[in-house]
Amino acid sequence: MAFSRYLNGARGVLRDIVSELGGTFSYVSVLGTDVRSLVVRANKNMSSVTEGRGECGFVVKLHDGKSFFEYSFDELPDDVASLCKKIIDSTKIPSSLADLSISAEAVADLPAREDFERTNDFSGYSDSELLSVCSEISEETVSRDKRVLNATAIIATYETSKLFISKNRELSQNYGWANGILEVVFKDEKTVVASKYAYSDKMSEIISQMRELVGPVLDLAGHLTRATPIKPGVYDVITDSSISGLIAHEAFGHGVEMDQFVKERALATKYVGKPVASDLTNMRDGAAATVSAASYFFDDDGVIAGNTQIIKNGILVAGLSDLASAAQLGTQPTGNGRRESYKRKAYSRMTNTFFEGGDSTLEEMIASIEHGYMLFDTNNGMEDPKNWQIQCTAEYGIEIENGKLTDRYVSPVVMSGYVPDLLASISMVSRDARVIGVGSCGKGYKEWVRVSDGGPNLKVKVKLG
Amino acid sequence: MTDIDIKKMLDGCDAVDDYRITEKRTESHELFFVRGRLETVRSTDTVDTDVAIYVDHDGKRGDSSFSVFRGMSEDEAEKKIASAAARAKLVFNEPYELPEGAEFSGEIENDLSGLDLKEAAGVISGAVLSAEQQEGCSINALEVFVYRDTVRVINSRGVDKTQRITRADVESIPTYTDEIGSFEIYHRMHFTDLDTDRIKREVSKKSEEVRDRSIAEKAEPAKDVTIVLRTEEISRVIDELTYGLNYADVYTESNRWGIGDAIQTSKDCDPLTVTMKAAVKGSDLSAFFDRDGTDLTDVTVIENGTVKALWGSSRFGQYLKADKPTGLLLCYSLEPGSLTESELERSDYLECVSLSGLQIDPFADYLGGEIRLAYQVKDGKRRPVSGITFSTTLSGALNTLRLSGRVVTDREYEGPEYMLFKEAEIL
User: Fold this and answer.
1) CB B186 to CB A43 under 8 A?
2) B60 touches chain A (CB under 8 A)
3) How many CB pairs under 8 A join A and B?
4) pLDDT given at position A454
5) Do the Cβ atoms of A201 and A178 come closer than 8 Å?
6) Given an 8 Å threshold on Cβ–Cβ distance, is A49 in contact with B91?
7) DSSP state of B293
8) Quick one: A105 and A252 in the same domain?
9) A218 within domain boundaries
10) Confidence of residue A62 (pLDDT cuts 50, 70, 90)
């Protein structure tokens, strides 16, 4: 999909809105979004080819020298003055509330005009081709093993156009991303559900990855039917890239979202410039740091995408900010202002978050463990930026005994503890690293955005239960 | 482009056998406070229109859906309809009927419905910020959302139904700070009844709990621990048990349990009886009908620990030959049990107050979670503890569980205030 024709046609009206509201507010911007999604799915009972969750609308952001105001709408007005009056009316609050307003610094509106595009090959694949791929993969998975009750193959594409206009800036961007999922319901000694994922900005790669998932997902399902609960305890652990990413994301990423600094909700505020992890640890976040699920050219505040070094050799270097939190902290925004959609507020959010590679090989790391586990595949996690508790759930683990991976699987595995203890325990880091482009992240329990995370294999000591 | 415009286009389209249009208009007013100061004021006025079209071909039924945006031209809408019809022809699903014609318009009655959204947001934020706080406590972050949703479902079989609900979503972060450190817990409220006294009571209680987190000690590792869960976590357990009983999961064989299966096998526990419901008083998830326009019908899905019925959408209900599909039900009630307050007072247990998130896996038979704050009750003494995790088997928990006799409501949940189970391990 090329850049949205609808947004292109809206430029004039949006400039008029910025100009009209500029008479009342010291800062005015408007973000237009046009996100289209296609979801193709097949299993042995049913199939579908349908649009996924998209969005098309606008959000105005205003600053009056004190507080911020936002107004979300989805219909371009015939009468700009009338809409602007409605917007201004919405910002009028009782004096009892107005008296409580913050006094944030003026927002910089540096000149910039650019159109960004990252092309993809999605339009080269018809609906019927994608459905055939999903049907074939589902049928192959079911036919390979009679213990498979069902297998669902899904391919989803997301194509995003965004337009940002303020008095001095006019930016547009257009990019795509795709995910694939193969999920099997498998019955042997017990019934289990096992999944594997594909991700890329190229459909050709998604299809190729999906076809290669059949064997691994069946192998995993077979092992999960015999998996046992783990005996709770503190273990030497090797993480796969997915679990390394989960640690990066939950253990530290949320804690350096700088809107939490403003709210005094982040313990990290007190640790900038200080050690927070073993000196083998290097961690980054940025929409421009790699090409993955959360790679864009500018954020939802119109700030150019960043590549922020968060931890360097174990020292906390910097956090991630949106426009409003940077204005309150007197810092520069880092390109991390993100919204769930044009209907929701922008917050400081992670994008692509990952540990950087080290010097070890995975084989050396496994060989170094007398008894422990290697953990695989993120299930979920929960942050605690104020008190640095962490809970991360892996889909499964494989026992390591005398320096070798065994055939003994445990599932599920909940990893918990105190973040600095966990990060200080990183004793080996693999050379190879991978960013997993299938994540979804909430702030607390809401405001869901697509993210990626990952990194190398890490050797840590952590509580499993 | 409005739902009426798109209806006219669909009525005149030969390629489409049936259609359903779901339009949701949401107006909101939102206030964001940072350490008691007002940082951001937001308002929204948006409409989401989702259109599903159905095409019968080769003895099968195909469907495909798409969104209609208000900025969409008639040309673009026509292309979307044609594209969806072509997609539906690629799909060979078993036939099913759409809900048949009925007109309805109703509002989920509550105290918020008559209020201006701005006024309601102001009253709610005032209640939170004026609630009595323990010394050293504050609300470091407060977000107040007041929404008015109007949902209209129209289909080609004569359904034209509208329901309106005004609801509030409040996220507050109570924080306690002293010379040792600063501590917080997460607190969220969803409601449709504006009860400022209840809001203040809940906020004050959280203030006491966050102060207790500051003095919480790490509990010693132990086995055979009795765990007590409160309503938020009980609701998670019930949600996990009932979700897999929906028609769609059963049809695709993704369910852990089916009709006739015993979820509990022991006689030494309070048996679970769960009813999926259209509405719970004060819940923002209460509804008259679902996204297909199917009228919602309450159904008891688990009775005395055994699965008795399924629930879910009209389409998958028809696939499973359900007499009358229940519609997608979002609320539930759990029958009270035999656990009395005096019995609880005599027991030793760990009462979970704040968890990172309860982890439940019916397939792997797992129940556990990282505890941010719990009260360890031993020999009648109560001390706050933190930094521990508990784990057990789900089956073990279900077969030892006891439910309190007192019934409360918490969002979609109506049922016992406490759930107790035995033989967990803490580390």
Assistant:
1) no
2) no
3) 225
4) 97
5) yes
6) yes
7) -
8) no
9) no
10) very high
The full length of chain B comes to 427
Q: In chain A, positions 435-454, which contact chain B (CB-CB < 8 Å)?
A: 444-446
- The one-letter amino acid at B141: A
Instruction: Express as a percent the part of chain B with pLDDT over 70.
Output: 99
Residue A416 lies in a domain: yes
- Which of A68, A91, A117 terminates a domain? The answer is A117
Judged by DSSP in three states, A323 sits in helix
Q: CB burial class (10 A; 0-12, 13-18, 19+) of residue B320? A: middle
User: Could you read off the pLDDT of B133-191 as tens digits, one per residue?
Assistant: 999 999 999 999 999 999 999 999 999 999 999 999 999 999 999 998 899 999 999 99
For residue A83, the enclosing domain spans: 5-35+52-117
Pick from B141, B359, B363: CB nearest A191: B363
Judgement on whether residues A108 and A247 belong to the same structural domain of the protein? no
A191: its two tokens: 């019934």
CA distance B254 to A221: 14
pLDDT digits (tens, 9 = 90+) for A257-295: 999 999 999 999 999 999 999 999 999 999 999 999 999
Number of domains in chain A: 2
Which long-range contacts does A279-282 make (Cβ < 8 Å, 24+ apart)?
A: A279/A313, A279/A314, A280/A313, A280/A314, A280/A358, A280/A426, A280/A427, A280/A428, A280/A429, A281/A311, A281/A313, A281/A314, A281/A355, A281/A423, A281/A426, A281/A429, A282/A309, A282/A311, A282/A312, A282/A313, A282/A355, A282/A356
B173 touches chain A (CB under 8 A): yes
Architecture of domain B3-213: 2-Layer Sandwich (3.30)
DSSP assignment of A205-233 equals: HHHHHHHTTHHHHHHHHHHHHT-BPPPPE
Instruction: Determine the pLDDT at residue B1.
Output: 60
Interchain CB distance below 8 Å, A51 and B36: no
Question: Which of the listed residues A98, A117, A136 is the one where a domain comes to its end?
Answer: A117
Residues 6+ positions from A218 with CB-CB distance below 8 Å: A141, A144, A145, A148, A184, A186
Can you give the residue ranges of every domain in chain B?
3-213, 216-427
Residue B4 confidence class, pLDDT cut points 50, 70, 90:
low
Residue A362 included in any domain:
yes
Contact check, Cβ <8 Å, B368/A387: no
Using the beta-carbon criterion (under 8 Å), do B389 and A391 form an inter-chain contact?
A: yes
**ipTM associated with this complex:** 0.95
Structure tokens given for B354: 């704040």
Whether A89 maps to a domain, the answer reads yes
B306-307 and B299-303 strand pairing: antiparallel
A20-44 pLDDT, tens digit each: 999 999 999 999 999 999 999 999 9
